[in-house]
C-alpha cells in the first residue's frame, strides 16, 4: 500500500498584540519556512479570528515552524507570538485551540 508523500497539519498561532504590518510579516516568514520543507504543499492561512491564526502546512514543516516561533518570541516586535497547538484536521484544531 503506497504511503502519502505529505500530510496536512493545521498550526494554531497566537499573535498577541502584534500590529497588522508585523502580522503580515509573520505570515510571510512562516510561509517561507514552510515552503522550504515541502514543495508540493503550500502554506495557507485558513482562519483568522482576533489574535488567533490557523494555518495549513505540511507535516514536515511543523518542527521548523516550532523552532522559528520560539526564536521569533525573543524579538520585541513579535513578543506576543506563540504556538498554541498543531492538529491533523481543521475541525479538531478549531475545537481544541480556538476559543
List the helices and strands and how they pair.
Layout (H helix, E strand, L loop, with lengths): L7 E7 L5 H18 L6 E6 L2 E7 L3 H12 L8 E6 L2 H8 L2
Antiparallel strand pairs: 1-3, 1-4, 2-3
Q: Could you explain how this protein is built, in words?
A:
The chain has one domain (8-88): 2-Layer Sandwich (Alpha-Beta Plaits), CATH 3.30.70. The mean pLDDT is 86. It is α+β, with helices and mostly antiparallel strands. The longest helix has 18 residues, at 20-37. Helix content is 38%, strand content 26%. Strands 2-3-1-4 form a four-stranded antiparallel beta sheet, with helices on both faces.
Summarize the structure.
By secondary structure, the chain is an alpha+beta fold. The chain has helices at residues 20-37, 62-73, 90-97, and strands spanning 8-14, 44-49, 52-58, 82-87.
